[in-house]
Amino acid sequence: MPIINVASTLEYNVSAPTNFIFSIVPAETPHQRILEESLSLSPQLDYEWLQVGEENIRNIRLEVPTGFFRLDYQARVELTPAVDESHRIDEVRYQALPAEVLAYLNPSRYCESDRLFLFASKEFGTQQTGFSRVDAICDWVNSHIDYVSGSTDASSSACDVLVNRAGVCRDFAHVSIALCRALGIPARYISGYAVDLQPPDFHGFFEAFLDGKWYLFDATRMAPVSGFVRIGLGRDAADASFATIVGEASLQNMQVSALVDDATTGNEQTNDAISTS
Amino acid sequence: MPIINVASTLEYNVSAPTNFIFSIVPAETPHQRILEESLSLSPQLDYEWLQVGEENIRNIRLEVPTGFFRLDYQARVELTPAVDESHRIDEVRYQALPAEVLAYLNPSRYCESDRLFLFASKEFGTQQTGFSRVDAICDWVNSHIDYVSGSTDASSSACDVLVNRAGVCRDFAHVSIALCRALGIPARYISGYAVDLQPPDFHGFFEAFLDGKWYLFDATRMAPVSGFVRIGLGRDAADASFATIVGEASLQNMQVSALVDDATTGNEQTNDAISTS
Amino acid sequence: MPIINVASTLEYNVSAPTNFIFSIVPAETPHQRILEESLSLSPQLDYEWLQVGEENIRNIRLEVPTGFFRLDYQARVELTPAVDESHRIDEVRYQALPAEVLAYLNPSRYCESDRLFLFASKEFGTQQTGFSRVDAICDWVNSHIDYVSGSTDASSSACDVLVNRAGVCRDFAHVSIALCRALGIPARYISGYAVDLQPPDFHGFFEAFLDGKWYLFDATRMAPVSGFVRIGLGRDAADASFATIVGEASLQNMQVSALVDDATTGNEQTNDAISTS
Amino acid sequence: MPIINVASTLEYNVSAPTNFIFSIVPAETPHQRILEESLSLSPQLDYEWLQVGEENIRNIRLEVPTGFFRLDYQARVELTPAVDESHRIDEVRYQALPAEVLAYLNPSRYCESDRLFLFASKEFGTQQTGFSRVDAICDWVNSHIDYVSGSTDASSSACDVLVNRAGVCRDFAHVSIALCRALGIPARYISGYAVDLQPPDFHGFFEAFLDGKWYLFDATRMAPVSGFVRIGLGRDAADASFATIVGEASLQNMQVSALVDDATTGNEQTNDAISTS
Asked: What pLDDT digit, counting tens, does each position of C66-93 carry?
């Protein structure tokens, strides 16, 4: 069972009293166990654990006075993903989808699936349904969109990126999610840590709901899915930014890392389907 | 306490087996009680009650074979809204917002609040905070946007409508919601029945989270808020369409009505703040 | 030399005094000669011939009083296109482009070429340059966009259509023009009559500037290019609508036809390059 | 008669042979006379004077080899604007507009006037027509849009800016132009030098066609219209960028200046209407 050491350091210049919500702590799920963790703030301010949504997402909320502010977080996380044979995983008929996944079929700010029915149908409509169809979407996104740092901004949506043909990890996820939804496959955005991601950073990827489970996918193909540590989730990146800031603060420094702790890693067979929800 | 008789009839031509989810049944809330109701389908098909989200929203899911399909629904609904003095209702500081309302600050498909920070700040930034500020947003939307049937379509968003300056009820709600969120006021979309709405139809309006409660608002000013019967809710209209259709069906006929049952109505004092969540 | 009989009838209900500019009369060019023509208006109003732009485009301007208005136009047009061997036609280097074609490299209302550099480069960047590259663009547009009447409206642009994947003739032209410009190939919109177009209507297509000439292209592939009779031209459809109306008038009836006059037609070899400017 | 000394220096790092078209030289018009000018290039490359459009716009085209490239331009320009009393200047009826200005009523890449008919009509429809209405548009733009360097990019259009409420000079011009066109007033983009502009830079403003002449306007109100020296013009900034670059070059340094030569300046009475076309 792989154990991942994750860490992040964030430094801000705060020029007026500012509220922060940080979404940087790995979630506790049946397949993702926090073995140990530490959080330190400088100055040592009070903070509140905030659970958002029904999943065990743990955000940190606090008020920071004017001045310098630094947050350090570290954790050892054990991943015990459910690994299934991808070729056996089919899509769920609309009629049989559980009520709680239906919202992930709806269009969202950055995933305008309502505009992409014909696009998705023309590109993926005749494809074999199931895990392999979502995989084909990832392949398509990967080969049609260039990964270019700085090519998009906070207002760029899936449709923008399909035109501009460039984006970063969140954009790759948004396009994939929008295409899945347009085909009737529930899909949601996941933020997290990713082992071997270069350059090291928080990562954005997605899950598709297939055969009764949420399976992990990443159209950037920049790091193995088996090394993803989930932090937050939502309809798209609007629900899962690593820091929400109300006030006046500028990020001065950010360091993120995710490293495999021991030799018991592996599972990089790309044909395996990984589920950690 | 006003009692409202609501009714809707929907008729479809179904040209291939089709899945429907209908969102036409009033929710049960502490302030909205269903005294009696009846649902009849023709043909008499099996259906499933589907509860979506944490609120007591009751949708109807069923599979309809090829042919003609008709749904009739009627209910007697007692409204016992909490009525508060609007001038005492202030906004909630970001730091004090409950976790479950935070998602209603995020931008959504039809409410791109992330693009409207400066717009909202320039138009409403110096306004008295609280209920009156949301009311001022409704006034602004009402006087700057024309109500024009057919002027928008299923892909029109708040930003589109701010440019085109025309829309229908869902657009009035979307613009208002987006402006609220841009000011830090959680806001969500409500679908429902509305007494005295002309022409009779399902209605779209919104709630803003103030002083710890969700208060009803309607920028169209087309019907008294005190006569609104809530059906569904969500981040925007994407979460609350009266019928979601997967298959091939065309609406042939739709009749909607909402009438006050007895003389105990009233409450049209526009300065009162109405809460029915 | 093919001779084409073109005709159009337009009927309006005019509910307030209204100004019209009609762009329905074939241009006189070295390759397109008007053998005879007739124009009749009912009521018999005064009108002005309006020449717009440096090409011999002849529009009709008039003021129409309240009431019924009908315009009938017919012409016999002789086409003597320059027919070149397409495989010999190369693109013109930027440095050598004549000054008067440079504006047709700029983005326009419906052809946002400035957003499509990467798109065009990824899809067509390695293709053989010249006539065959523009032909490849037409093939791509034809296979990736569905022709669907009513799928777009007067505000739909090339980028919209690339996302929605449906459009009509003007949209096919806009997407093609935008992609040409993004590759450095000047391209412009042409309105006209088209022999064998089904259903009969005014047509929108485009020209690309190659090897010192403007060559005709049509990504809809709905009618042979050799049977196109040019009316107007411009940067995109904004410059070439068949009727510009300032006032209040609604189109009641429109009939358009374009028929080959005699047996001397042909030239439908798709490998030939047709130039009629 | 004011005499303006204008100068610009541009330095590029050219990493592959690159084609440039520079639009930095003042136009010769009946109201703008070039008394003397000098152009020097380093290295001393051949260049071509390129006249684009019917106005006397003089662009410089050249091919630059890999390496450092510098351009210095200086001119003494005498301005003899036609100065009219603004309150006498009315709009021209559509029916009477000369053919050559009609294209400036059409929507363009950055001025989507086709979407703004209702917006313009609601905000300015009841205003006194003529010069004062265009002036009112400038006032509105000035008070509703913030001037924020870096707030927009090369793909930002008038509709974007109306939502985002921030922009730079080209955006102020685009919004104004789009609103004019939506009201039936031909309007076009002008690039130029502007006396007293802080910080010194090329400037973008616009002209509206009123009473048979093109009058200068500037919604930024950052410099007196009487000190504007026209370089290029077009439907919007797409037609008038100071440098069009095909190849690989990065701007290293840019200096622009415009200074009144002697004491015979003035004319800053804002009620005067200035025409220099």
From this structure: 999 999 999 999 999 999 999 999 999 9
Instruction: Determine, for residues D95 and C19 on separate chains, whether the beta-carbon distance falls below 8 Å.
Output: yes
CB pair distance less than 8 Å for C108 and D53: no
Asked if D104 and D209 count as a contact pair (C-beta separation under 8 A), the reply is yes
Neighbouring subunits of A (3+ Cβ pairs under 8 A): B, C
Contact A155 B114 (CB under 8 A): yes
Q: Which chains touch C (3 or more CB pairs under 8 A)?
A: A, D
- Cβ contacts (< 8 Å) between C162 and chain A: which residues? 162-163
Nearest-angstrom CA–CA distance, C220 and B211 = 58
d(CA D229, CA D151): 26
* Tens-place pLDDT, residues A172-185: 999 999 999 999 99
Residue carrying the six token digits 């983009």: D189
Do A164 and C122 make contact, defined as CB atoms within 8 angstroms? no
Give pLDDT < 70 ranges for chain A: 1, 263-271
Q: How far is CA A81 from CA A274, B39, C243, in A?
A: 6, 45, 64
3-state secondary structure of C160: helix
Query: Which amino acid appears at position C139 of this protein?
Result: D
Report the predicted TM-score, pTM, of the whole model to 2 decimal places: 0.96
Which candidate in A59, A60, A109, A235 is best for mutational testing of the B interface (most B CBs within 10 A)?
A: A109
* Dihedral Cα A88, A91, A97, A101, nearest 10 deg: 100
- Band (B72; pLDDT cuts 50, 70, 90): very high
| Contacts with B119 from chain D: Cβ below 8 Å | 163-165
- Residue-wise pLDDT for D26-73, tens only, equals 999 999 999 999 999 999 999 999 987 777 899 999 999 999 999 999
* Closest C-alpha to D23, from D92, D69, D71: D71
Chain A residue with CA closest to C116: the answer is A164
**Roughly how many angstroms between the first and final C-alpha of chain D, as a whole number?**
16
pLDDT for C55 equals 76
Predicted ipTM of the assembly: 0.95
Distance, CA of A123 to CA of A137 (rounded, Å): 9
Smallest Cβ–Cβ distance between D246 and the set C50, C94, C239 belongs to C94
A206-255 residue pLDDT tens: 999 999 999 999 999 999 999 999 999 999 999 999 999 999 999 999 99
